[in-house]
Amino acid sequence: MATRGLSAAVLLLLLLGFFLSASSVKADALLSAPLNVTIRELEVNSAVVTWEILEGDPVIGFAITQQKKDVRMLRFIQEVNTTTRSCALWDLDEDTEYIVHVQSISMGGSSPPSQPVLFRTPKESEKMASKSPDEVTMEEYGQAQLRAGELIIIVVVLVMWAGVIALFCRQYDIIKDNEPNNNKDKAKNSSECSTPEHPQGGLLRSNV
What local confidence, expressed as pLDDT, does residue 188 receive? Predict the structure, then answer.
């Protein structure tokens, strides 16, 4: 009797596990793989992958698998609680081929991976050569503005110093021009004050 009860319990657990796995597979099957996976904004060391999903899919996030071609090492990027349909790929090597898969994530699990997308990062020299001479990035524009601001500050400081020096020279010339007149006045005053009745070294008269 005990053996029959144990067998029934084991059978019940097996049926429960089968039901859970089947429901999980069903949930995964209901979620479609992302469509139109595209690589945009391709740079030497970065890129942006974008994709689309079928309308009505209960997607709450995504998972991206990034792999160098002919290399087994993978990078796995996963985000949940987001409705974004793009992701930045960073720290890439120049002139290197990469393979990218995208999966949608729902409350029941993840979708099958998308069709693989193969892309190659450009070389630094190729990127610089393809850049138009008239093209100015935001970083270069900011640096140009910074240099212009520094130049204006330097010019203003130089003009202020020139004004201070000119004012000092003007005051110095005025003081220098007044010095001869001050010396003449001092000499005149000293000559008027020093008029002795008897010159020094004269003979003194004695009263008889």
Answer: 58
Report CA torsion sign: 4, 10, 16, 18. negative
* Contact assessment for residue 36 and residue 25, using Cβ atoms and an 8 Å cutoff: no
Residues paired with residue 67 on neighbouring β-strands, in sequence order: 74, 99
Is residue 87 classed as helix, strand or coil in its secondary structure? strand
DSSP 85-137: -EEEE-SPPTT-EEEEEEEEEETTEEPPP---EEEEPPPHHHHHHHS-TT---
Lookup: tokens for 56:
């009505």
Compute CA distances 49 → 25, 62, 165, 183, whole Å: 27, 12, 62, 89
Distance CA 48, CA 41 (A): 6
| 12, 15, 21, 25 alpha-carbon torsion, rounded to 10° | -150
Q: In the predicted model, is pLDDT for residue 49 greater than 80?
A: yes
The token duo for 183 is 């010396």
Instruction: Find all residues with CB under 8 Å of 132, minimum gap 6, and list them.
Output: none
Report d(CA 131, CA 142) in Å as an integer: 18
What mean pLDDT comes out for the span 66-86? 91
> Residue 109's beta-bridge partner residues?
106
Element (H, E) at 104: strand 97-106
